Amino acid sequence: MIERLHHREEATAAEILALQIPAYKVEASLIGFDGIPHLSDTVEMIKKSDETFIGFLTDGELCGFLSFKDENGTAFIHRLVVHPGHFHEGIASRLITYFLQEESEGRDVKVTTGAKNEPARNLYKKFGFEEMDTFSPESGVDLVLLEKSHN
Question: Where in the numbering of this chain does the N-acetyltransferase domain appear (predicted)?
Fold first, then answer.
């Protein structure tokens, strides 16, 4: 089941963080960079986030989530997280499908991911995202900007 998450509530923010840390550790290993900013998040940082969070729950357990916000009329995905214990169950695909159908509201959609994170890059391409740019926000990490036009 997919639903909006109330990330300003302490318990929900703690659930998000408990899911986010192990997932981003896997990505850090994939891309060879352990300085991913979301690895340093705290419950308070999640509670104060201006992102909208949608979660995938199975039997009440949060197994994955996607967060996004509007940036200059574009829906920008900030986090797409699946707990490593639930990899390869189609959760990320279901979250993206839901987001594109129910939340992006006909806007262009953008997302960044690690250039070495082939599983994420391939997933976004499966949904029609195109790689637009590669950039290095800091030494040791390359990111890819992907975009899906509404047209």
Answer: 3-151
Q: Does domain 2-106 have CATH number 3.40.630.30?
A: yes
Domain boundaries, given as residue ranges, for the chain: 2-106
Cβ neighbours around 51 below 10 Å, total: 14
Round to whole Å and give the CA distance between 16 and 46.
8
**Tens digits of per-residue pLDDT, 39-56?**
789 999 999 999 999 999
Contact between 121 and 144 (Cβ < 8 Å): yes
Structure tokens at 127: 């949904």
Quick: pLDDT tens for 118-127.
Answer: 999 999 999 9
- Mean pLDDT over each residue of the chain, to the nearest integer: 92
- The answer to whether 76 and 109 have CB atoms below 8 angstroms apart is yes
Strand (E) or helix (H) holding 13: helix 10-31
For 22, other C-beta atoms within 10 Å of its C-beta total: 13
